[in-house]
Specification:
Length: 431
Amino acid sequence: MLDKDAPILIIGAGTFGLSTAYHFARAGHSNITVLEKSGAVPPADSAGNDLNKIVRAEYEDPFYAELALEAMAAWKTDPLFSPHYHETGYLLANSAAAPDKAKKTLRKSLASIQQHPAFRGKISPIVTREDITKVAPVFDGPMQWKGYFNRFAGYAHAADALTAVYSACCALGVAFRTGDAVASLTYATNPAGEARRCTGAVTAAGKRYTAALTVLALGAALATVLPEVGRQVAANAWAVAHIQLTPEEAQRLRGIPVTYARDLGFFFEPDRRTNLLKLCPSGAGYTNFVSSSSDGKKSVSVPPDFNDFITPADEEKVRKLLRETLPGLAERPLVNKHLCWCADTADSEYIVDFVPGTGGRSLIVASGDSGHAFKMLPVAGRWVVELAKAGAQEKGRWRWKAGQDAGGDVSWRIGRPVDLGEVPLGVRSKL
Ligand code: FSA
């Protein structure tokens, strides 16, 4: 049992880290420190530090559908989250050229909510072009899409929501230490035969933090601090690009649903503050395998230093998406192009567990977002608090995944990830 005044150290101030700090503080813990290597919270390289993220509850697996519904209740009604949630609806479809896999995953998503009472009267099929223009009258492209429109979904202004949780944490007394990276975790020397206990961390600047419980919430960068995570988590990135709209153009697109053609990509209502239209191509994304030991074998995928680019193939995909929906914007310049790094697992299950071989229930990993965790911001930290209390992860699916190999085929994605090593240097470096 963790005393209320026992020191808790959370490493990483992104989606999992902030939510964890918030829930521990809400549960009455009074000695919480969050370490963040970047100088700002939310940090620039956090996947959640984004203009917007999809908030939806349909999943291939009803287990996650229920968790997302719980999170959505908070997005809708909790004053901390509701200012950042926009229930514009969610148009999920496949273009005429979509592969069978895309159709299958869409059918599964729909099945997870179709009979659910929370969605009664909220879902309509998309079969014809008119079905789309009924819910998005400004779309004037050809769109031979099939899918459905879900009114009980939308998006969150992701960066603003993280900032709100950060402020709430500060108000609850959580200490944030930024601008200093963790160099290594520290361990107590235990008698032979006993698992070593994690005692906190030491930073690059040489500062020591001592904790009864350390939580690693490092997203895609987990392996840089905990190499023993191995291949169960692979940093996997997707491209993000924007079009700078004029205020008039943005006004015209006000209220459009989150629109996702599974085989092409997705976009959101333009940002209400900046008039930026965010676009993402879909696909299996990118890995960045590097060697984690001196043998030179590429064994772990971690985010690279330079991420402000997207590939020509991804650029073409988002232009194709626009040609289908808003052809007048299809040739516009793309701005703020970058890669957004997620922590993928082989089966898209999160990891919320104690690190095996570490004694005293002293080290937890909260990771494996697999590109579907931001919507859980209101509830994710509670899973960590519950784990700390329970002393063991009872949900098999969230356990440490020793021996699993992320970075391969994922049921709900189209294609296989491309390693950045195969992307020409001229595309992925600051020339
Ligand atoms: O949970 C969600 O609605 C996010 S899906 C968005 C996405 O880009 C995926 O399409 C992609 O496969 C990856 O997981 C990153 O997130």
